[in-house]
Design goal:
The protein is mainly alpha-helical. The protein contains seven helices and two strands, in the order H-H-H-H-H-E-E-H-H. Helix content is 58%, strand content 5%. It is globular.
C-alpha cells in the first residue's frame, strides 16, 4: 500500500469513527453532552467541536479554500476563531451536520491528491502566529493523528457515561471494508 493509499484509508477511518461517536452521542441529552467531565476540552460536545475546528483549520491550510473551510454561524456570517477551544456550533445537530460535511471534504480532497503532492512544501501560520514550512505529508499525518487522539478522549467520556463505543481500531474498519491483504 502506498503512503497515499494509507492517508485515504485514514480519511475513511476518520469518517467511520466520527459517525460512530456522533451516533452514540445522540443518545445523550444536551446537558450531558455539554457537561464538563474533566477532559482537556471539558465535555463531549466541546471535544467533538475542537476536532471540527482543527480539521477545518488544516483543510484551509491545505486548500486555501476560505469559502469551504471557514466556519459560519447559522446566519452565514464567518466565525472569527480566537481559540482552539472555541465553540463553533452550540447546537449539536448543527455540529454533526458540519462534521459530516467536513469529513466528506477531507475524503474528497485526499482522493484528489497524487503521490507527488505529499512532498509539496506547505507554508502556513499557526494559531499562535508562528510561521511554518514543511512537507504536506507531515501535516497530513498530524491531521489524522490529532483526530485519533481526540476521538479517543471522546470515546473515554462516552465509556465513563456507560456507553461502550466498541472497537475504535483502524483494523476494525478495514475488516468491515473487506479489503484483501497482500
Amino acid at each position: 500500500m502506498s503512503p497515499l493509499e494509507q492517508y485515504r484509508a485514514l480519511a475513511r477511518y476518520n469518517r467511520w469513527m466520527n459517525r460512530r461517536l456522533y451516533r452514540l452521542a445522540f443518545t445523550l441529552d444536551d446537558s450531558t453532552l455539554k457537561r464538563d467531565m474533566g477532559a482537556f476540552f471539558g465535555s463531549i460536545h466541546l471535544t467533538l467541536n475542537h476536532m471540527l475546528l482543527t480539521d477545518r483549520a488544516w483543510m484551509l491550510r491545505f486548500t486555501g479554500d476560505r469559502e469551504r473551510f471557514v466556519s459560519r454561524t447559522l446566519a452565514q456570517e464567518p466565525i472569527a476563531v480566537t481559540s482552539l477551544a472555541q465553540e463553533l456550533y452550540p447546537d449539536f445537530e448543527t455540529l454533526h451536520r458540519e462534521r459530516e460535511r467536513t469529513d466528506e471534504d477531507i475524503l474528497e480532497w485526499t482522493y484528489a491528491l497524487d503521490e507527488s503532492a505529499l512532498d509539496r512544501v506547505l507554508e502556513y501560520t499557526t494559531s499562535t502566529g508562528e510561521a511554518q514550512r514543511h512537507a504536506l505529508w507531515w501535516a497530513l499525518g498530524h491531521l489524522f493523528n490529532h483526530q485519533t487522539h481526540h476521538r479517543g478522549q471522546a470515546a473515554t467520556l462516552l465509556k465513563q457515561l456507560g456507553i461502550d463505543p466498541g472497537s475504535t481500531d483502524l483494523v476494525a474498519m478495514l475488516r468491515e471494508e473487506e479489503i484483501p491483504t497482500r
